[in-house]
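In this section we walk through a basic example: taking a raw amino acid sequence and producing a predicted 3D structure, encoded as discrete structure tokens. The instruction is simple. Fold the sequence below.
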Amino acid sequence: MKYTEIFKDYLGFNNVSMEGVLSSIAPFQERLTWCIQFIWAEGDIKKIIGMHYRDLETHCNDSDQGFILSFEKLVDLVKAFKHIVDMTVIAVRAGDPIPNAFKEDNWEEQCQTIVTLDDGSWWGFY
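The resulting token sequence is shown next.
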């Protein structure tokens, strides 16, 4: 599923925040399970998810499914970061298996939404 129309205002701009991207997705987030599959960022997030950044990073890297959280927690988490360098977030229909973006072939086909941020400036929306 492509969200090009939703993000048309962001295309061509370098200064787009993950928070801005998620606010654009908000109307479509119902009935989805959200998962952070990869993260490289800075910030004090313990109050949001009950763990430090390094623990979150380790969980994302070591888990077959990544870090599963609600859309609301994802938005709160993104707001708490000072800087996000790389991030891969996927969403699947509630109840569907969560693919691993780094271990499975054709994982994209199982997702309803994929948002990637590379090097703090290159966005991918699917």
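Looking at the output, two observations stand out. Residues 1-13 have pLDDT under 50 and may be disordered. The radius of gyration is 14 Å. In the next section we compare this with other chains.
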